[in-house]
Amino acid sequence: MASGTATASYELRFDSGRICLDLTATTHPEERLGTEARLGAWLLGSGLAPAGTALAAVDASWLLAFRELRGQITRLVRGELDGRPADGALARVNALALAAPPALCAVRADDGSLCRALHTPPRCAELLSVVARDALDLLTDPDARGSLRQCEGDNCPIVYLDTSRGRRRRWCSSEVCGNRERVARHRRRAALARA
What we know:
Elements: H1 19-24, H2 36-45, H3 60-82, H4 87-97, E1 104-108, E2 114-118, H5 124-140, H6 142-146, E3 148-150, E4 159-161, H7 174-194
Antiparallel strand pairs: 1-2, 3-4
């Protein structure tokens, strides 16, 4: 499991290389943001809200807002990959990026080390802004945009940032899609050997 904040009934993944891409990956292979509790787990697991942040304000309106942003970022990223600009999505992501991000501060942990915290409980618009800004930063950076890849796994819609040496990463996750591909390849070879 990618995050200690997720329950056994679903797995949150944070291996796309950017928080905005991790948000888009929450639809595969099933809806990962189906409840307010799951959204809260994603906010903590993604690092949008530091560990220990009280997220009592997360409600159905937050869930709708994050799903809407997820859809807009997905349209925007897919449009860039396919060469079909999604200007409506761009306008919406730009609008969501306008809110100020939550104010961070450093506090002493029980062991005396410094750790991140928020000055006040986060508001939905602040957290949406962080993700929207990440998407805009990604898509306006030519090097980062050039590293966007579509997973080559069967029926996997996940887009990730390829930061591997040589830029030869093929799958969203070597442990998930990569392993499936290796097993399928082994089965094909075994079937040919038997034939």
